[in-house]
Specification:
single chain, binds magnesium ion, mainly alpha, 11 helices
Length: 200
């Protein structure tokens, strides 16, 4: 699906947009299941009843948030423009080099993490360091010449062609997994509840 299809989606809300954002992720080589596998690995030690469908549901719940969708659209669009060599310099070169001091990719991703508080933030830091599963694959995918064919021809690459620049996507996927993981942690039925002392 191209950007035009997203723009045409009526209302860009609810399930319609969730489906569209899943397709944007899949176009870049990331499925909900990929993210859910990371969520399961993070939360299973604390909840042995947790299943893959639970984790997929949590990822989709995070993806249903409009601010998450807009954050993903922004980061993926920048990755794709860099893939086509269309960004102004020096940003194009910074993206191609995945310059370590750039940091805007992590900053953008924090917008997704912050929805679920400190547990999400801690998990995001862990995933950024360990890069499990699809995060590691995205992180190792950079390199080679940018695709300067542009537009429709670049879109027409095979379904397996997921781009070369994933400066934003690796952090966005880490954030998505961290947020979905924190959401499950907050809902864990084994978590003890403490009453607040009454005033007066
Ligand atoms: Mg990055």
């Amino acid at each position: 699906m191209g950007a035009a299809a997203i723009r045409r989606a009526p209302g860009i809300g609810g399930m319609r947009m969730t489906t569209a954002i899943e397709r944007w992720l899949e176009r870049r080589g990331v499925t909900v299941r990929d993210v859910a596998e990371i969520v399961l690995s993070l939360q299973r030690p604390y909840n042995d009843r947790l299943t893959m469908p639970d984790c997929e549901e949590s990822v989709r719940a995070v993806l249903a948030k409009r601010e998450v969708q807009y954050t993903l659209l922004t980061g993926i669009a920048l990755d794709e423009l860099a893939d086509r060599g269309l960004l102004p310099e020096p940003l194009q070169q910074i993206m191609e080099d995945d310059e370590s001091l750039y940091g805007v990719d992590e900053t953008l991703a924090l917008g997704i993490v912050s929805v679920y508080g400190m547990i999400g933030l801690t998990s995001f830091g862990y995933l950024d360091k360990m890069k499990p599963g699809v995060i590691g694959r995205l992180n190792g995918a950079c390199g080679g010449e940018p695709d300067r064919r542009g537009g429709d021809e670049a879109d027409a690459r095979s379904g397996a062609a997921v781009g070369r620049v994933h400066v934003f996507l690796d952090d966005l996927v880490s954030a998505l997994a961290a947020a979905a993981s924190a959401r499950i942690a907050h809902q864990n039925p084994d978590a003890r509840k403490y009453g607040l002392p009454c005033e007066g």
